[in-house]
Write a sequence for this structure.
């Protein structure tokens, strides 16, 4: 008997646009196969939202669906975005709405070296095994700001988050008059403390004693000085076993490129986390292997870091490994640790045992999305 025997989980699945449905098919089948080997079962409830639903119905993501989604154990998402829809509509209306509605305050983006996956920088025998813990609700991503052709921005600044609300105005006149834009960033003690706790707990689970806070307090002292100080104080107060180091984001990028394997847990404000995790993904192997999770105390959502990649949708060129590894994060989140390990091992085994032509097209092989899916399933 293992702890998973007889357990049932209901998982919301939003395959979305472009390569989303192709890569989600692999993620679903891999998670199903592993869970059933451990005696658990996953019931998938599909949601149709995305570009074609929007173009057909003019609806993006109705509130009734949000309510229903909140009852699931977790959500898997493929990708959102389509050239037929103005950029931003679906991303804001679906991705950001889900993140904010369910207060998914952690964006978790691991990066690990995989067998036979070429890296752009020599690793000199070392492995990349790092994870970006990105604050997911604040910083420059609160969407408050405006642009002006007339030298004056006067915009309301009302913000509602799970733990607080903020009200006010951004009022700015520029002289001599010229077009300009202004956007506001915010970091609160509430949000920085809870993301720091998550980062420290992640380090503990990984058996590590250090986290690195990614900052830029020398140039942006209020915003990032506050983030850095609050993170350090929280870690020192509540996690005496964890050392909290600080790196400025520019220096960190330099060191990451020169020694990609030197970091473990990287605690980032929202903007730096977005950028650093793409750099990390590029260093570890590419878009096709970068997994992600948006995690909160309510519904958590797991998705590959890549977008809908309309240029390769339907061609078989999509690499589903990023989505499959996102299902690993999902399985771990719902407590199916053993099943998560099974899927992770299956991905490694497939890559390890592949001849060059059996590798994903992204890595110079000939295997299509469907063939990679089959190969991973065979290894579970
Ligand atoms: P977004 O702007 O939403 O991030 P996008 O579709 O413009 O999305 P990405 O999905 O991030 O951009 O991908 C950029 C490029 O990387 C794609 O155009 C595609 O060629 C490649 N790519 C992305 N995902 C994969 C994948 N899973 N397998 C293979 N190639 C991929």
């Amino acid at each position: 008997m293992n702890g998973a025997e007889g357990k049932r989980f209901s998982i919301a699945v939003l395959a979305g646009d472009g390569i989303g449905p192709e890569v989600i098919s692999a993620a679903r089948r891999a998670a199903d196969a592993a869970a059933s080997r451990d005696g658990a079962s996953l019931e998938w409830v599909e949601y149709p939202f995305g570009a074609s639903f929007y173009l057909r119905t003019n609806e993006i993501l109705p509130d009734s669906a949000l309510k229903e989604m909140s009852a699931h154990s977790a959500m898997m998402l493929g990708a959102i975005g389509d050239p037929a829809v103005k950029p931003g509509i679906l991303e804001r209306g679906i991705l950001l709405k889900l993140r904010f509605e369910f207060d998914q305050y952690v964006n978790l983006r691991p990066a690990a070296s995989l067998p036979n996956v070429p890296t752009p920088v020599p690793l000199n025998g070392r492995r990349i095994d790092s994870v970006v813990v990105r604050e997911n609700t604040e910083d420059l991503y609160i969407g408050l700001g405006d642009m002006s052709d007339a030298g004056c921005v006067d915009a309301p600044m009302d913000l509602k988050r799970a733990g607080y609300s903020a009200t006010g105005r951004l009022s700015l006149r520029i002289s001599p008059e010229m077009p300009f834009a202004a956007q506001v960033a915010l970091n609160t003690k509430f949000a920085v403390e809870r993301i720091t706790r998550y980062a420290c707990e992640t380090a503990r689970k990984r058996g590590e004693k250090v986290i690195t806070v990614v900052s830029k307090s020398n140039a942006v002292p209020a915003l990032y000085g506050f983030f850095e100080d609050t993170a350090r104080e929280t870690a020192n107060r509540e996690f005496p076993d964890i050392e909290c180091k600080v790196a400025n984001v520019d220096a960190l990028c330099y060191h990451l490129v020169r020694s990609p394997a030197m970091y473990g847990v990287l605690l980032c404000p929202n903007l730096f986390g977005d950028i650093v995790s793409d750099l990390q993904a590029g260093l570890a192997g590419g878009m096709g292997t970068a997994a992600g999770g948006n995690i909160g105390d309510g519904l958590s959502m797991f998705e590959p870091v890549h977008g809908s990649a309309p240029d390769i949708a339907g061609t078989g060129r999509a690499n589903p490994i990023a989505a499959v590894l996102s299902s690993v994060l999902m399985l771990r989140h719902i407590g199916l640790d053993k099943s998560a390990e099974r899927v992770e091992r299956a991905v490694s085994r497939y890559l390890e045992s592949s001849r060059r032509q059996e590798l994903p097209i992204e890595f110079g092989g000939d295997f299509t999305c469907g063939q990679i899916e089959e190969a991973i399933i065979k290894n579970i």
User: Anything to note?
Assistant: The mean pLDDT is 96. Residues 158 and 167 are 4 Å apart (CA to CA).
